[in-house]
Amino acid sequence: MSIALKQVFNKDKTFRPKRKFEPGTQRFELHKRAQASLNSGVDLKAAVQLPSGEDQNDWVAVHVVDFFNRINLIYGTICEFCTEQTCPVMSGGPKYEYRWQDDLKYKKPTALPAPQYMNLLMDWIEVQINNEDIFPTCVGIPFPRNFLQICKKILCRLFRVFVHVYIHHFDRVIVMGAEAHVNTCYKHFYYFVTEMNLIDRKELEPLKEMTSRMCH
After folding, report:
1. Is 31 annotated as a binding residue?
2. How far apart are CA 4 and CA 8, in angstroms?
3. 215 annotated binding-site participant
4. Is 63 assigned to a binding site?
5. Which of 54, 107, 112, 159 is the most buried (most CB within 10 A)?
6. pLDDT at 106 over 80
7. Contact 133, 145 (CB under 8 A)
8. Fold of 56-215
């Protein structure tokens, strides 16, 4: 990792405080295991598979929080170049435009500049991962019945951050020497959501060609 990149990723550029897993809990152990496999340079395809005997919801919860933190950080490194002037719409090239809807202020899908979309998205995810009724931290408290549906929506929207960064801001990623880091994060994300069947194939279309080259 280049020195410049170390500085970028050591400055805590995430917009928000990270959700931590309590040491000693089952989820903390899973988090450590997921981190260790990522850091050891092992086969990412194998690393995302549900460990035998582990609960699927626990495994998904750990990864959703981890991806939120990582993708937040990636966007944080280029956000000063993603402005209402450079990115007046949240898009992934000319064919894909993403509109924001949250059933609160934006009850209908609304076209927004990319930075505004990103802020709303990160807030929307953060509220959910910090909600004990959705992401319980205490052992023994069950996940809600619709937990996987909630995670599918979170992951689908996080994927759009990759789409926007790769298509509109990858030149900045390269200048900062962060290409390998972002690519590894993307591969990890892609293998996980496809292994666990958490994202609709049509959502993956915007990065299909790049993905076929990068993820064999």
Report:
1. no
2. 6
3. no
4. no
5. 159
6. yes
7. no
8. Butyryl-CoA Dehydrogenase, subunit A; domain 3 (1.20.140)
